[in-house]
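Document type: protein sequence-to-structure record

Subject area: structural biology

Format: plain text, a pair of labelled lines:
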Amino acid sequence: MPSPKRRKKPGRRLVIVESPAKAKTIQKYLGAGYTVLASLGHVCDLPKRNLGIDVENGFSPTWRPIKDRAQVLKEMKAAAKGAELIFLCPDPDREGEAIAWHLAETLKIPVEKIRRVSFNEITKGAIEVAFNADPQKQRIDLKKVEAQHARRLLDRIVGYKLSPLLQRKIAKGLSAGRVQSVAVRLIVDREREIAAFRPEEYWRILGRFAPQEIPLAAAVEALLVSMDGKSLRTSAEPAERALADEVSAREVARDVTRHRHAVSSCERKARLDHPPAPLTTSLLQQQAANRFHMTTKQTMRLAQQLYQGVEIPGEGPVGLITYMRTDSVRIAPEALEACRSLIRSRYGERYLSSQIRHFKARKGAQEAHEAIRPTDFSRAPENLQGILDPAQWKIYQLVWQRAMASQMASAQLEAARIVIEGGPYRWEATGLVMQFDGYRKLLPKKQEEEQDLPDLPAGTPMAPLREGTVSPVQMFTQGPPRFSEASLVRTLEKQGIGRPSTYATIITTIQDRGYAEKRDARFYATELGTLITDELLRHFTAVMDVGFTARIEEELDQVEANEIPWRKVLEEFYAPFARSLTDAERKMEDHRTQPEKSGIPCEKCGREMVLKWSRRGRFLGCPGFPECHNAKPLPRQEGDATPQTPAGDCEKCGKSMTYKSGRFGTFLACTGYPECRNTRPVPTGHKCPKPGCDGDLVERRTKKGGRRFYGCSRYPACDHVSRSLQNPEPPAPTGLEQVDGT
């Protein structure tokens, strides 16, 4: 009887991922038959010292191994030689696909050995499914690679061509980017909107009504909404009429007491508040910024740690959330089942939505991935306290709560509205009461204080209004707010600028380059950022156009979908860009060789100092350089309060004062720091208008919101404040001042 044939022992298999943390987690699930190595991200890029793109030859790129990856590539090449199969497992997006392609090319892996494996979560089940998939489906997606390469080439062309131009025309060390420059433009445009805004005063009238014939009924606080049939301004939104000053407001407040009022209608309506969708990348960044004051960079770093694997006692490294770079709101069917089962057992049937909720993705979203969700819903946040560090735990809790809430029942509210009329006046009172919290049990909302209104049938007479029951309240419209990280991300996404995976890089880059700075969690355009934006807008209209930048993103999506060739995107971009570049070389103002005179003498040699630019902004420099090296800072331009005079000497030690920037704006500080810690506000050139005071008006900012106002330099001896230098008189001391939000 012939002996049975021995089964051939499989050769060793090599797996390549991006990070050591991811490698450690995957190795645990794959076992001893696999060697898992980390590429540490990209292994190839365009050369640093030249463009690296043959424009005349179809935009052919030259890819070079990254020097810092030499040892890693050496180890991977050695491991690849004896491997039976090589599984390339970078992240499941365009960038990951490009890394996989570069690995295959650089390591010279035969096509038959390559398996491109991707997964949305790093769990045992997901890894097994991905590695055991049909080999025909484990191919590198060349269209994804082309889309990523097209993006990289566009960015290189813009950066490589524009940066030297800015360095020649403005200052050494400057740089520009295709997407980042548009993001800076958004901040500069907002800065100008704020500067152009002029607040409008208006007054609201509140009345406290008591039902005349129902003594035990609660009083109703109502807002005057119309007079003589015309709507009255009660918010920042314009209306047919407005009480524009205190005189007219108090006149109306007196007149309403002369009229009898009665209820004209009382209605109650049931209202449903549906839960929000699970998190996408941009929503995660916005929520983390709003709730935890985290930067986008910090949020993505923490989310990546949770995705790649965190050490859990008794289990080793465990991937806790799905892939964190996504604009999809979809959750896989098996995960939905687990989520809904947990809601039922944890909160009861009543808290489970009657049907599976499906959410609509925004236009242009790539639905290949899932939304960000826990890999195991049964790992409740409270079970991971003390295991995750506090910052990781906050992000995990946010992901878990949003995913769970998305399948919970809607909150049930009752909205009430009472209309009261008397003479030419119409008042409205609104109330809102929660009947059933639903998803809000897990995801409480910040909302207006609940107010339950009494049931008052139409015709119910109200007690006469008296002076103490009518309150005129002064209001001011508020200008557009400066961008926070959350609102900037929201705007980038809404305008189609960049992709979720690029937002953190965009926001970090514009700050690193000194084009925008963050103060009190809000972005301010720097003087340098404003100058560069203006020059680029003047000479590179298309590059700086928000709509054009968004169309480029759409075209890259079309490349991935095999709808247009990648070279066409570059060809259509490059021709007009090259013409603009030629024109800019001739026409852009030369800020380096033609500096602006300052009118300030150099204290070392007597020459008139000039305004020069550096990559850190504008400064005063002596034109006698290199014989005279004198240079000193110049204050930022910040609206009305911009100082235009030398900083002067310190009254405590005699050394010169210099301009510094802090959380609440520009201030003067002694150059003798730390020996002398003297500081003082920057004078505006306006004297304090308070009778008997010889102080100066100085710019200050509120602690909450960073809003600008002007106070006396002699504070606390003089407590004068005003909102504007044009009208430095203080507002009337009604004690009722408020600021209306927008």
